[in-house]
Design a protein that fits this description.
160 residues, alpha+beta, 43% helix
Length: 160
């Protein structure tokens, strides 16, 4: 039996096309498209790269290289909610270690790991662009300022 070619679900394909059509050059949409794919699946399925490369009119190895270069993209360890924790110098000075310790305590995982139920993954990132709110974290596309373990628990409970 022959394996069928990977196709994006219609709703995802429509979003990808919107990003592609927004830019003067299709290739400029690569990061937005990869974010959409990751948000849809919880990670970047390897079989999705060829159809995306075709849509962007890019060589497959270019798309693979972008996914490999940026630590914000997951090629495995599917997680419904990705908790991106800013580890820049500003967030570090303002208490990022307390945030990471609280996440580890509440979720029982370390940065880079996924909870056994596949719900959460902690992903350290260099900057979230919110230095005035440091320390900050994002759950998928929602941004939060870390204030306390109690507040963090309340935030996480919204995603269960």
């Amino acid at each position: 039996m022959f394996k069928t070619e990977f196709e994006f679900p219609e709703e995802l394909k429509k979003k990808l096309e919107e990003h592609i059509n927004y830019f003067p050059k299709k290739q400029q949409a690569i990061l937005l498209c990869l974010h959409e794919i990751q948000n849809y699946y919880g990670y970047i399925p390897p079989e999705s790269l060829k159809p995306l490369a075709d849509m962007l009119e890019l060589p497959l190895n270019h798309v693979e290289g972008v996914v490999a270069f940026y630590d914000m993209f997951d090629r495995e360890d599917k997680a419904k909610y990705r908790i991106r924790v800013c580890v820049s110098i500003v967030c570090h000075l303002m208490g990022k270690n307390k945030l990471l310790q609280a996440l580890e305590k509440i979720l029982g995982i370390k940065p880079g790991e996924t909870t056994p139920d596949g719900k959460f993954k902690i992903v350290p990132v260099q900057c979230l662009g919110a230095c005035s709110e440091a320390p900050v974290f994002m759950i998928n596309e929602d941004e939060y300022k870390f204030e306390s373990e109690v507040q963090l628990n309340e935030v996480l409970s919204r995603y269960t």
